[in-house]
Amino acid sequence: MKHIQSHILYIGIILLLLGITGCRKHYPVAEKLLQAEAVMNEYPDSALNLLKGIEQTELQTREHHARYALLYSQALDKNYIDLTSDSLINIAVDYYKDRDDVRAKFLSYYYQGRIYTNANNLTQATLAYMEAEQLVDELGDDYAAGLLYTQMGNIYRNYYDFPKSLQAYQQAIEHYTKANRPFHKIYNTFSVSDIYRNTQKEDAAYQTLKTALAESRKLNDQSLIKSCINNLIAVCIDLEKWEEATKWYQEYQKNYSRNYPTIAFYGYIARLHAKNRNFEEAFMLLDETWKKTKNLQDSITLYHAESQVHQMNGSWEEAFRSMEKSVSHQNKIVRKSLQQPILTTQMDFLRQKMELQKYKAQSEKQMRIIGVVLTILLAVAAVYAVSVYIKRQREKYLKQIRKQVARIELLKDEKNGMEEEVRKLNQLLLQGGELKDELMQAKGEWTRLEDIRALELYTRLRQDPSLYNPSADYDALLRWVDIASVRFAERLQESYPQLNVSEITLCCLVRMGYSPSQMAEILHVKIPTVNRYIYRICTSLELPNHKESFKQFIVAF
Questions:
Q1: Alpha carbon of 195 to those of 295, 325, 341, 346: distances in Å?
Q2: Fold of 485-557
Q3: pLDDT score of 348
């Protein structure tokens, strides 16, 4: 009955708009655009058909072109047609950015961000979403704000910026709650639980999902209930709540399809089988899952699951090999993420905003001074807040790193036996040389272990540069720079043997992008000492004695 009523309402709206059109023959295209906008949310397919019926020759003004560009981009997005070219939406952005139509301006930036996201241009997408965010308060539309913060949360998560991602998802949930959109709210709750799990806050993820499940059962929405149970199974396994995980898995098998939603979920179910000593079933499930992998992240997830199942089975050598493959693949993603210019994007955005403020305030000197002062105060407050947060989180992150290092040390203990075999093989090689191939293989394993140690050092330094130990960490530092920058350290030592250990270390730190203050902290010296090192290196290499020339040389080497 409700379905029939909605269609009658739709037909009524169309007839009314057509009647209006008949009374206003001088503005046919404006009425067509009005019709499309009126049915956009409830009937986006009809809106798209109406827009397709508009000839380009009918768009005789800039306003018509801009409105058409915005509505057409919106209709494509609502019909799940991923547009990747920005040529159409830019017409709307260029027109509305200097006008007082807040809603049209917001939607222009939002759909520009959606198009850049479809094109995997996350830098431009971030800029567009930030422009839209400036209009949220003035817009006063909680549902639209929720959609925006959801997209921003997704982008920050892609950059592994979990604090910003969590904040964005929580803002989305607040707006969806005000807009009475429980479905959207709960799906963002799943994203929040994922962030908690990625930051080793499994207990918070567990409580969040329990609340989401209760709300989903009230709505009696089976898709939401299914998603809640999926996530609860994973979190319970992470928390080693095996009995509860088994209970949720039994409910899942009873009520839902056995076609699991994600590669990660297959891995969790394999761990659950392993815990119940069903190792044959666990490995069969993992073997079948390999056929479903589509990308590098899927491989990382599955290798990690394999390593955990092997550990539960007591197969430590196999566990180490699977973990090595997972770490190796993850290195590729880490390198890619490091190349993403998210910080540059944010800086460019803020710089553009500052330049715009200065331009607008040329005739208002007093307001310009107030604006600058407020900006400085906000920046100082932000820096202080961030510093307090970092201090509070540092110890927590260090504990996480120590836990990871302990796991690797456990695997390295298993490697001690392999090293003993290498020594025996070396003796045999000296005596007769029959086992050369096996010895070379064992040495290859040791090389991969050095890569892991290099990754450990890099992770430590990102959390706290002062943890660097020159005597113990020098080789690992050179190893990481060689991995990340195509044998940079090796080439530097070969080309300039006159450089000492401290000078080579400094060159490596510059290549890794550290600031002078960070380098001073790592080297346990003061900034003037760093400058003296740079002067000495420039003199030795016959470079101009200033920092920019030195930095350019290191980047280009």
A1: 21, 24, 21, 22
A2: Arc Repressor Mutant, subunit A (1.10.10)
A3: 52
